[in-house]
Amino acid sequence: MLIEKQIHVEPSKPLADDKPSGNGSHHPIRIGPPTVRRPMRLAIVGAISLIAILAFVPGSIQKWLWMREVGYTGVFWTLFSVRWGLFGAAFVVALLYLWINLRLAARNGDRRQRCRTKRRAEYA
């Protein structure tokens, strides 16, 4: 004679801030185009970089050849270094500005989400 034992297993409960998606599961629904794989991203970045280099280099070589012909290579290198220095400084300033603002937005958005979750838990 076989005795069957009833086993009761409670389903796992989602976290307070984990809400089900539209289809009822707790897995996020992907919206938008499919993600591009890493090799494809590298190929795209490489192609854009190559196009940028090919657009920049011929003009610089032409200017350098002309300045060398007239005897102003020092002026060329001064202008070249000043342009790249200004670009680098502007790039760093813009990068810092964006980085600081994105960090503040992420921190404040997280705090706002925690407050909503806490309020939902109090009313539940």
Structural description of this entry:
- With 124 residues, the protein is mostly helical.
- The chain has a domain at 47-123.
- Helix content is 68%, strand content 0%.
- The protein has two helices and no strands.
- It has helices spanning 38-70, 73-123.
- 0% of the residues are buried.
Q: Give the helix/strand class.
A: mainly alpha
- What percentage of the residues does DSSP assign to strands (E)? under 5%
Rounded to the nearest angstrom, the distance between the terminal CA atoms is 48 Å
- Shape call: elongated
Order of helices and strands: HH
| Biggest sheet overview | none
User: What's the total count of β strands?
Assistant: 0
Low-confidence blocks of residues: none
From the alpha-carbon coordinates, what is the Rg to the nearest angstrom? 29 Å
- In round numbers, the mean pLDDT is 80
Count of separate DSSP helical elements: 2
Task: Summarize the SSE layout with pairings.
Elements: H1 38-70, H2 73-123
Task: State the main characteristics.
single chain, mainly alpha, 2 helices, 68% helix, 0% strand
Briefly characterize the structure.
The chain has 124 residues and is mainly α. The protein has a domain at 47-123. The chain has helices at residues 38-70, 73-123.
